[in-house]
Design goal:
The protein is built from ten helices and 16 strands. The protein is of the alpha/beta class. The chain has a seven-stranded parallel beta sheet, sandwiched between helices. A three-stranded antiparallel beta sheet has the order 7-6-8, with no helix packed on it. It has a two-stranded parallel ribbon with strand order 10-13. Helix 3 links the parallel strand 4 and strand 5. Helix 3 runs parallel beside helix 5. The N terminus is likely disordered.
């Protein structure tokens, strides 16, 4: 560990090694960079899944110790855990994927991988803290308010309604249109696709582990993360990367539904800062926290901002297409992360989109 760095962004340094699973990935590599810049010793465990990587890890910080291996392999995980004081669990298969045939892969990498990791942590007598990369997808639809019935939980949108271009959610009691609201961590969870189900199961496994062994767990529910090093040209990439790839090829971004679906787009450097804060907080923060910018924007607004940042780029095309696993509106209340971690997003949206328009993506 580098000495003399106790007064940096994340507060006190952590004694001992920090393991970042998935540390060669999009978000993980930014976390590794920040941890090393803050003087921490970092070990990375990453299998380099072909859905997110070429057969190497060019973005991985050379100061990190690297173990190429699968988090579902107990012997590899046991080796990676030696001397570790904090586990930052980023390894996961992400995105909606290609189709339902991806289901076994999601369960293997996300659920089984987390179970193996926790089992080996228990076997090794791990006594530090665990920071889990969770996701806003665990909420399903966001939080809604009906003028007549107050806060309500809408059912999944019906295929027939989507097919006729009726995208907004309605009150299950009176059929009125609902007003979306920022969702706090106390809201009920309702995963509505395979990826979402596995992310919620990761939380359940980690919180059960915490109750059994007393290991503090912080689950950071990332909202729509974007920034340099996103994977490109893959169904497992985020919507920002898909739009960026289209623009780079001279094509208009194809915006599904009517483009009015609301999300919270948060820069990957802010996500890395949230992880650093969770890892180095003087007392561990237990439970779930939203990691977001705090400012909702429509998908069309994001696509337009990205196109505007590229001279001569075509304007987004609103297609009316839809995916049954998508939700209409979901954006975060950031109050708990601000109160418990002192976390506030720092990256400006337009500056971030301008940077992202030309930033290197992962092949």
């Amino acid at each position: 560990m580098i000495k003399g760095r106790e007064e940096r962004l994340g507060g006190p340094t952590v004694a001992g090694m920090i393991l970042v699973t998935g540390g060669a990935g999009f978000i993980g590599s930014h976390i590794v960079d920040l941890l090393i810049a803050e003087g921490h010793e970092v070990r990375v465990l990453d299998v380099l899944l072909p859905t997110a990587h070429c057969d190497r890890a060019p973005e991985l910080n050379p100061e990190a110790e690297f173990i190429r291996g699968d988090v579902t392999d107990a012997l590899t995980v046991a080796r990676a855990l030696r001397g570790v004081e904090v586990v930052c669990h980023q390894a996961a298969m992400v995105g909606l994927g290609a189709d339902i045939h991806d289901l076994p892969a999601y369960v293997r990498h996300n659920d089984l991988g987390t179970a193996v990791l926790l089992g080996e942590m228990a076997r090794s007598g791990f006594g530090g803290r665990l920071v889990l990369a969770s996701s806003m997808v665990v909420y399903g639809e966001g939080r809604y308010v009906c003028d007549a019935h107050g806060q309500v939980t809408p059912p999944p949108r019906e295929l027939a309604a989507l097919a006729r271009g009726s995208f907004e959610v309605e009150c299950p009691h009176c059929g009125r249109s609902l007003a979306p609201d920022a969702i706090p961590e106390s809201s009920h969870t309702d995963p509505r696709n395979v990826y979402a189900a596995t992310k919620l199961h990761q939380e359940h496994l980690c919180f059960s582990f915490s109750r059994e062994l007393g290991v503090p767990v912080t689950a950071l529910r990332y909202h729509n993360v974007y920034g340099p090093r996103m994977p490109r040209d893959t169904p497992y990439a985020g919507v920002a990367a898909i739009f960026r790839s289209a623009l780079e090829s001279g094509h208009a971004p194809r915006v599904f539904e009517d483009g009015g679906q609301l999300r919270d787009f948060v820069h990957v450097r802010d996500v890395a800062r949230a992880n650093l804060s969770a890892i180095t907080a003087s007392a561990p923060v237990r439970g779930a926290l939203n990691v977001a910018s705090g400012t909702p924007r429509s998908v069309l607004e994001m696509a337009a901002a990205l196109a505007e940042a590229i001279p001569g780029a075509p304007a987004p095309e609103v297609t009316g297409e839809f995916r049954l696993g998508d939700v209409r509106h979901v954006f975060a209340s950031t109050a708990r992360a601000r109160e418990c971690l002192g976390f506030r997003a720092m990256e400006d949206f337009m500056a971030g989109m301008t940077e992202f328009a030309t930033a290197p993506l992962r092949a």
